[in-house]
Specification:
368 residues, alpha/beta, FAD/NAD(P)-binding domain, 7-stranded mixed beta sheet, 13 helices, globular, binds flavin-adenine dinucleotide
Amino acid sequence: MGGFPLRILVVGAGIAGLAVARALRRAGLRPDVTERLPAPQLPDTGLYLPGNAARALRLLDLDGPVRPLGQVIHRQRFLDACGEPLCEVDLDALWAGVGECRALPWAELHRVLLTGAGGEVRHGVEPAGIDLLPSGVGVTFADGTTAEYDLVVGADGPRSAVRSLAALGGAPRPAGQVVYRGVVRAGPPVTEWTALLGQRAGFLLVPLGAGRLYCYADEAGTVPPAEPLTRLRELFGGYAPPVPEVLDALEDVRVGVTEEVELGRWSRGRVLLVGDAAHATAPTLSQGAAMALEDAVVLAESLTGTDSVEAALAAYESRRRPRTRWVRDRTRDRNRTRDVPAALRDPLLRGRGARIFGEHYRLLVDPL
Ligand SMILES: Cc1cc2nc3c(=O)[nH]c(=O)nc-3n(C[C@H](O)[C@H](O)[C@H](O)COP(=O)(O)OP(=O)(O)OC[C@H]3O[C@@H](n4cnc5c(N)ncnc54)[C@H](O)[C@@H]3O)c2cc1C
């Protein structure tokens, strides 16, 4: 695009915002990055990254620092609540030629992205007002300071302030699950990604390497319980080993509800939404980070491959829509299977589970 350098503001320093900052810097741009929190928040939880996340990290030239982290996941084992096998997905075959699947502590990916962003993140700063100008954006920050930009990128998560300030959409919709997450350090040895599927609830064990185990559990619902650890033990205490032992070792658990964002458009004037601000889904397919990383790659390519910001935003949205729509629709499909009684679901998964679960990622194997 002619007329460089563009003045760009990235709002939010989560996975999407830091990845966008990285991608833009590699394209020769120098974005301002602001984050509402006063310091980086590094939650003690895990993250599972499917093969397309590895490809996006490679395109951002961040595969080197990520490769030593966490653990490569070669297959996914699905069991019923009694521990009887239902099916297995061969991840090496599914993502062949795309990238390795990896599980790692969230904080470690965040640190890589923070370093990779390559510039200052202004913490404790958030926009209070956005003014759409004929060829730019006026931003008033909460401390009363103002600035003008050629482009504002809202990477401020599912409850995006940029989204509402730019009149692109309102609050997220509940997606229907209460989710529990925790990391166990001195628990039973678990070396494989293992999901135990119950009725409208499930318990997932993901090894993070170095003896750490990430636990992710969910149940149908929209209201988090007052005593999450008690509720977790009540729900899953009767599941097959090693779940009860893992529950005993779990000291702390984060609880939340899943949310979904579905918008008719992602930009207005020169304000664009990326990551969860634009297309959050329930984390059933573990595609949130991958989508955010892909967004960053495609945004930088769009800005450098077109001759106006408006054309870049249109090109960006038309490339990203099919993949994020696919994730949303497959996530909904998979969540609907929770309501199928085990007596019907389990024989189906024993016969065709590997094909059904593998199929959920079909479009995402294709190049961006
Ligand atoms: C329970 C759960 C488990 C998940 N597990 C996985 C997984 O295993 N694999 C996976 O790929 N994805 C997973 N996801 C999804 C993934 O977390 C998100 O898709 C991903 O983090 C999106 O990143 P983001 O940067 O768009 O949003 P966020 O991570 O929400 O980051 C937004 C950032 O913006 C900041 N911010 C907010 N408002 C403002 C403001 N007004 N001004 C400035 N800054 C602001 C926030 O503080 C935050 O730092 C999971 C999600 C949940 C809820």
